[in-house]
Amino acid sequence: MDEQFILRVPPSVAERIDRLLSENPSSEDKLDLSFSEDGKTGSFVIGDEHFPASLLNLPCIVESYKTYDDNVLIKSADIGQMIMVREEGDPAPDVVEYRHGLTPPMRDARRRRFQREPDLNPELVRRVEKDLQNIMSGGTAENIDILS
Length: 148
Fold this sequence. Notes:
alpha+beta, Immunoglobulin-like, five-stranded mixed sheet
């Protein structure tokens, strides 16, 4: 079973990671990710530089695929969280859910794409539920007039 995560880093850090992975790493190049006890905040280390990191929930599940022959895709994981690395001066996110998805069409996805819960009066819901139970047991609904 593969374990996968999404690591979102600033462009300068992405270039260093790319260079580190494409070249032969030396002993002074190190890559480390550690989290504090709360499990939501941490530190990302590349070389001698430290960057703050946060674990955020994504607005929806992202599927990950891999291929062995460049022809057939095989689903390898469902990813629901992202590790976001920030520059030293950037403020930490104050929420546990990242509002935007990974691509531009998913910008503000919760508000735009997912149905909101309706505002219902709890008393009305109880009354309708009681009426439905009465009808299902062979009775009639209360407070209604039957016209013939």
